Amino acid sequence: MSEKSKSPLPAGDAEADTPASGPTRRALLRSAAVAATGGALMGVAGGAARAGEYQPAQGSMMFMKGHNMIGARTNPPGAPGDHEVPYRSFDMSFDMMEHELVPGVSLPVFAFNKQVPGPLFRVQENDWVKVNVTNNTEEMHTIHWHGLDVIYTMDGVPMVTQDPIHPGETFVYRFQARPAGTRFYHCHWSTPLHMMSALHGAFIIDQADDPVRKMFPYTRDYTLMLEAFDVNWSRKHINEVLGGMKRVNKLMAMGKLDPITHGFFRDYDEFQAAIADGWTPPYTRGAAERSTPEPEFFAINGKCYPATEKLLIKQGEYIRIRLINGGFLSHHMHLHGHNFWQVAEDGNPLPEPKRLNTVSLFPGKTADIIVYGDNPGFWTFHDHDVRRVMNNGIYPGGMLTLLEYEDMGDVPYVPSIAINE
Ligand SMILES: [Cu+2]
Q: Cα of 355 to ligand 1 centre, how many Å?
């Protein structure tokens, strides 16, 4: 919930990413190793790659003009430099850890700042934001800013707008936070696995004259990330991916990584030429035996019922609940005992609030709702696709929490927990 979520720590005064600091020693070693692989690179002045310098494609792994295989961009085109605008600076990391969904069930995840979901960003509209993200894992990642109108080089789609961020590297995202509203971010490398493996978080952009607050003077503001997990699929594929990355790193160190060994092509023609030469794409080989994930655990902010956090309200109070669908299934959140107002969709205010008791969220959608405290009690708030209020097929569980009035005094019945009805 937003009130308890930790925001990313603002970066210290010492800027680690000033253009003068240049690429890390490790990055230089890598670029030297890769540069040694291709004859085409021999003509590059000075030999070793420098950050931001265009590298001829042959023999290198990534082909983006203006990007090299180092991955660490210090001053992307289109974004102002450090002294041109007052950036709000945040430090982020990619880490691997084991995360407990509900007592007795955990899974390996790639978490932002070792939190599930990732830290909640809270900024003002039009703030300039700088996110220094360091990859502490053995797998590649990026960050995509979902619903934010950033310049395209900051959009975080690997091989389309940037090279993936390699193990041990830092990438700096710079953008202006707009438009206002409930938005989010997620990793875009190997998206099905990484996004499901907890690499998602809320990005809330406030505005000075919030039209929602004018209409509904809410006093509490909750953010609920809706998630679906296939624990066994994640464990199996994270292991496979890490094994694959070890092979890639070894090939790279030996100077033997080329488009064929790793399936990176400069364009569609090159891809077709490789197939004409007899190369078989992975989806025709063993990897095609991978099943698609079939989630059996459904969570709100990283926890399945009964481990989910409650929503608190008082009589006469308005609360705002920001729902974000960070998974790949549709969820239909239903509140008992109240009709609420939906006030925003995809972060954007609706022209007229909609009176509902169930709100649907496709994958990638956000919805903001306002609840008015006029019916004291304990009320469930859950996905009404009842397959998602189970833990591994056992009801109740999953995407379910309680709305609880704090000011009820003596009550005739209080909630308890039955694990297997
Ligand atoms: Cu990732």
A: 38
Q: What is the pLDDT of residues 179-228, one digit of tens each?
A: 999 999 999 998 888 988 999 999 999 999 999 999 999 999 999 999 99
Q: State the distance from the centre of ligand 1 to the C-alpha of 250, rounded, in angstroms.
A: 20
CATH architecture of 1-208+231-292: Sandwich (2.60)
| Tokens standing for residue 144 | 């995509």
Spacing, Cα 42 to ligand 1 middle (Å): 33
In the chain, CATH 2.60.40.420 covers 1-208+231-292, 297-405
pTM reported for the whole predicted model: 0.82
pLDDT tens digits, residue range 360-388? 999 999 999 999 999 999 999 999 999 99
How far, in Å, is the centroid of ligand 1 from the Cα of 139? 7
In the reported structure, the alpha carbon of residue 165 is separated from the centroid of ligand 1 by a whole-number distance in angstroms of 9
Distance 190 CA to ligand 1 centre (A): 7
CA of 218 to the centre of ligand 1 (A): 35
Which CATH class name applies to 297-405?
mainly beta
pLDDT tens track for 392-416: 999 999 999 999 999 998 899 999 9
Identify the three-state secondary structure at position 133.
strand
Cα of 408 to ligand 1 centre, how many Å? 45
Cα of 399 from ligand 1 centre, angstroms:
24
**Least confident among 46-60, 145-159, 286-300, 311-325:** 46-60
CA atoms of 152 and 154, how far apart (whole Å)? 5
Which tokens belong to 388?
């998602």
Centre of ligand 1 to C-alpha 304, Å, is 23
Using CA atoms, how far residue 193 sits from 47, 96, 112, 115, 277, in Å, is 37, 13, 14, 17, 31
Angle between helix axes 231-254 and 25-35 (nearest 10 degrees) is 70
